[in-house]
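A favour, since you know our C-alpha cells better than I do. Would you make up a two-line entry for one protein for me to read? Write everything out right here, beneath this request.
=====
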Amino acid sequence: MIFRRNKSAKRNVALGLDLGNSQIKAAVVSREGEKFELVEYAVRSLPADASTGFRHPQFIAELQQLVSELRTADRHAYVTLSCASAMVCQAEFPPMPLAEIKSALKLNSARYLRRDFSSYYLDAVPVQGYEINPQSKDTSKAKILVGGAQREDVDACREALVAAKIKPATIELAAVSVINSFHLAHAELEQEVVVLVDCGARTTSINFIQGGVPLITRIMHFGGAQLSEYVGQVLMLNPREAEEEKLKMSEPVKELVRQAISPIAREVRSSIDFFERQHDRRVRQIYVCGGSACSADVLGFLGEAVGMKVECWNPVTALDVSGFNGETPRVTALGPSLAAAVGVVMGRLAAGNGR
C-alpha cells in the first residue's frame, strides 16, 4: 500500500527504507527549518518464504515494486535493517582519533568488546557529550557507541538494494534509527531515562535512552511474528489466519497473546532491574513502537506483565501529515510501525545531510 500527500514544494527531502522481516517500509520526509513533514510512505508485506533473507528473489521483487510506486524520483536512500546478527553496545577507548578506533575494532574487536566480531561490519561514533581529543592531557577514556551486523547480512542487503536500483547512502540498524526519531520528537525528555522498546516482526530492541544517547541496548530474537505463531499453534491456524485472529483480538485470543508476550515482558523487566541496580537511577516510563505497538491490547498486556505503565510511541505525531487530508487518520494509525523508516531519515535531515 502507498499513500502520497496532495501537494509538493521545494524542500530538503530524503527517502528512508526499513527492510524488516515481514514488511518493507518507505518514508519520504522533508524538512523546512525545524518542521518535518511526511511527504509519502509505502508499506509492502512480504510472503512468508521471502522473509528468510534479503537475497530471496521475492524479497527483491517486493522491494522493486515498493520503490517503483514512489513518486519521489531520487533513488538515493537511507536504509535501516533488522537482522538476527544485529548488535549495539558501548565501549571505552583511550583518547585517539576515531579512524584509529575503527581500525582497532577491525583488527581486534575482542579486546575492546569482549567478543570476537571479526565476521561483522562495525561502525563507531562518540557518545554524545564525550569528545575525542588525542592532544588533550586528559587521560580518561572516551565512551564510544559501537554497532554492527554480520558481513553476510549486510552484503545481502546491499545486493538487494542494487538489484532494485536503489543507491544506499547509509545502512544502519533499526535499533539506532528509532532512537534518532524518538530523541528529535521528545526533546523535553532530555534529562529523563526512558525505555524505548521497538517490537518488530522477529526482533525486539530494548533501549535505555537519555538525551538521545543509548545507555544500554538489548536485542532479542522475538517479536510480533512469534505472537501470531503461538496463536496459530494453539488454534491450529495457518500463518495468515493466525495473524488475522491476532488483529481481531477476540477474548480467547487475548488470553493467548497475554501468555505469548511473556518473553518480551521478562526481558524488559530484567533489563530495567539491571539498569537501576547498575546506575542507581529509576526508570519511570516505557515507550513502545513497531507493528505490535499499534495494538492497545498488546501494550496493556505488556504493561501488566512488566508492572509499569507502557505507552505507545508514534513518530508520525511529530510530523506534519496535513497533506494526506482524508488519509491522515490511517497514516497516523500506522505510525508506530514506521518508526525506523522515519527515524533513519530524520536523523540525517537533522544533521543537514538530506538530499
Observations:
- The CA atoms of residues 62 and 289 lie 24 Å apart.
- The chain has one domain: 2-228+256-350.
